[in-house]
Automatic annotation (TrEMBL):
Cofactor binding: number and manner: Binds 1 FMN per subunit.
Function description: Quinone reductase that provides resistance to thiol-specific stress caused by electrophilic quinones.
Similarity-based family: Belongs to the azoreductase type 1 family.
Name the UniProt record assigns to this protein: FMN dependent NADH:quinone oxidoreductase
Subunit structure: Homodimer.
Enzyme class of the recorded protein, top EC level: oxidoreductase
Record's keyword terms, sorted: Flavoprotein, FMN, NAD, Oxidoreductase
Length: 200
């Protein structure tokens, strides 16, 4: 089993969403001791936002790229290879200003590549990243799940489905700032939910 964890907390391994992901990864290791786990920490290694030259390099066929384009496309190629080669994708996602972290959006912009992770057909786009399961582990200061203010869930579900990942589970630890005294219990409850999902 290959597991890819994309961490998008500004606080890296000290973030609440990262704590949920670490619990998930520890549980996976217990159940599958030989699991191959890759962690891409976007706080330690931010993915640059796309610019026009990088975008053009990314969509140019590999054998047609100039030397400069090869360098510009190298990171996107690496990120896509990590995604395509994994079995389980784990996204640890805090909520910043009602959305996903910009670092995660930058990662998304690099891996959403026509002809590689999705393709256009006469009937619309078709995802090419098949046979994967994804877990979205979110930490939030307020209460957003099930409300119009939860922009993360529909966006991530749409994006993942767009590239072909339709088996997606969401676990949220909410009200971490609203009920700060209860934060340890809130996180513990979310970890319990993760355990239940992994047992299913």
């Amino acid at each position: 089993m290959k597991v890819l964890h994309i961490s998008s907390s500004l606080f890296g391994e000290n973030g609440n969403s990262s704590a949920l992901a670490q619990h998930f990864l520890d549980s996976i290791k217990l159940a599958h001791p030989t699991a191959d786990i890759t962690v891409r920490d976007l706080a330690k290694q931010p993915v640059p936002h796309l610019d026009a030259d990088t975008f053009k390099a990314n969509i140019t066929a590999a054998h047609e790229r100039s030397e400069q384009q090869k360098q510009l496309a190298q990171l996107g190629d690496t990120l896509i290879e990590e995604l395509l080669s994994t079995d389980v994708l784990v996204l640890s996602v805090p909520m910043y200003n009602f959305g996903i972290p910009s670092t995660l959006k930058a990662w998304i912009d690099q891996v959403a590549r026509a002809g590689t992770t999705f393709k256009y057909t006469q009937n619309g786009p078709v995802g090419l990243v098949e046979g994967k399961k994804a877990y979205v582990l979110g930490a939030r200061g307020g209460a957003y799940a099930g409300t119009p203010a939860d922009t993360q869930t529909p966006f991530l579900k749409t994006f993942l489905g767009f590239i072909g990942i339709t088996d997606v589970e969401f676990v949220f630890a909410e009200k971490l700032n609203m009920n700060a005294d209860e934060a340890p219990n809130i996180l513990a409850a979310a970890k319990h939910d993760i355990d239940q999902l992994l047992k299913a």
